[in-house]
Request: fold
Amino acid sequence: MPKLSTKEVTAIANAFYDLQAYAAITSDYPTATVAAEINEQRLMSARTMKMMQRAFPHLKLGTEEEVDEV
Reply:
């Protein structure tokens, strides 16, 4: 399996994020529920990013300080 560059990993993560946000926005849920879901997804993404940073430090996906602020 070929290795992905940092740019490719970031593009995949951003596309996934956009898809989740679009799905939440176009759903029949109330606005507050959608906002809470998007915030939860961001928090989960930040945790995932931290785990990826620890597992693959050579990818330089951002600093942990940046992720902690999300």
